[in-house]
Write a structure and sequence with these properties.
The chain is of the alpha/beta class and 175 residues long. The chain folds into 2 domains: 127 residues, HAD superfamily/HAD-like (Rossmann fold), CATH 3.40.50; 41 residues, no CATH class. 45% of the residues lie in helices and 14% in strands. The chain has a 6-stranded parallel sheet, sandwiched between helices. The longest helix is centred in the N-terminal third of the chain and has 18 residues. The chain is globular.
Length: 175
């Protein structure tokens, strides 16, 4: 099976890391709310590479992806990263290697993921974003939704951990 996996808040805890950076460098703003566009652009330009190289891993992600790879699945890491920094691909690649996350292909700077998912013939995609999961499912792609802090009810297969994701794959996708 060809499995596509998002990076931010699926492999990593990017949100928590961004909140910590906002608390430290932008204390005048609520770190849990969106920044004004001009402030956001400046912030992300300054800290994009830091986020991509230092956000902590989700618990169990290395073991889970290693297990999927050992089971013979092809692993595609697919991210929208790249909109704010030219170094996003290299930062992401080095991060994955440094943390021993096995992958067959890394794709960054994906405005919308559906075209790349079709081109790569992805059978299952794992992402934290409900809107992306909705779009993919509408286009016939199987999805597992990584639970987020702001989730509301939806009809996706939702997992709160990588341990749950492995269980879900075994039960629903013959994985």
């Amino acid at each position: 099976m060809r499995i596509g996996i998002d990076i931010d808040d699926t492999i990593t805890n990017s949100r928590d890391y961004v909140v910590s950076l906002k608390k430290k460098y932008l204390p005048q703003y609520n770190p849990y709310e969106m920044l004004p566009d001009d402030v956001f652009q400046e912030f992300i330009h300054k800290y994009d590479s830091d986020i991509h190289t230092n956000a902590p891993l989700k618990e169990g992600v290395v073991e889970a992806i290693s297990y999927l790879k050992e089971q013979g699945h092809t692993i595609y890491i697919m991210s929208a990263r790249g909109n704010y920094s030219d170094s996003s691909y290299e930062d992401s690649r080095e991060y994955l290697i440094k943390h021993n996350i096995p992958f067959d292909k890394l794709l960054c700077n994906l405005g919308t993921k559906i075209d790349a998912i079709r081109r790569e013939k992805i059978d299952l995609f794992i992402d934290d974003n409900t809107h992306i999961c909705d779009e993919l499912r509408k286009n016939g792609v199987n999805v597992i939704k990584m639970k987020r802090h702001d989730d509301t009810e939806n009809d996706h297969l939702v997992c709160a951990s990588w341990k749950e994701i492995i269980k879900c794959i075994k039960e629903n996708f013959n994985g």
